[in-house]
Specification:
CATH architecture of the largest domain: Beta Barrel
Helix content: 25-40%
Strand order of the largest sheet: 3-2-1-4-5
Number of domains: 2
Radius of gyration: 23 Å
Strand content: 25-35%
Shape: elongated
CATH class of the largest domain: Mainly Beta
Distance between the termini: 68 Å
Number of strands: 5
Structural class: alpha+beta
Oligomer: single chain
């Protein structure tokens, strides 16, 4: 079986695989015991031994991600999508808009009315989630 060896920075990982260079590679169940170093973390530079179909047969950490000197963790490697994390308030507002949009579209005659009604209902839902029933 043909194999390929690459060196790359870990972008993400989980119990089933590792993401490097924007692509996920699953750990092979046929890898020899100890061939996959499960201590790898995001930001580490690793050497991967891949099968011709992209399965990880071997993983060795070449260089650990540098730790911050002030006790903070090193920054994560940038993801391919560049997605950002939402805080609780932003997530609540986003979900409120999603819920409100499906309701408001049925009761609005034009775009201006839709936007006004969407804002009102989304505000009400956000208030309800964060502070309880505003009508109580």
């Amino acid at each position: 079986m043909a194999k390929q060896v690459i060196s790359a920075t870990v972008e993400a990982l989980n119990e089933r695989g590792i993401k490097v260079n924007g692509a996920w590679h699953n750990f092979s169940s046929y890898a020899q015991n100890g061939a996959i170093d499960r201590t790898a973390q995001v930001g580490d530079t690793v050497e991967l031994e891949l099968t011709n179909t992209g399965w990880v047969r071997g993983l060795k950490v070449i260089q650990r991600a540098p730790a911050q000197s002030n006790g903070q963790a090193a920054p994560q490697a940038p993801s391919a999508l560049g997605a950002r994390q939402l805080d609780a308030t932003q997530y609540t507002r986003l979900r409120a808009v999603e819920i409100a949009a499906t309701v408001v579209v049925q009761y609005s005659e034009d775009l201006e009315a839709y936007m006004a009604n969407l804002s009102t209902l989304a505000n009400w839902i956000t208030h309800y989630v964060e502070e309880g029933d505003p009508l109580a």
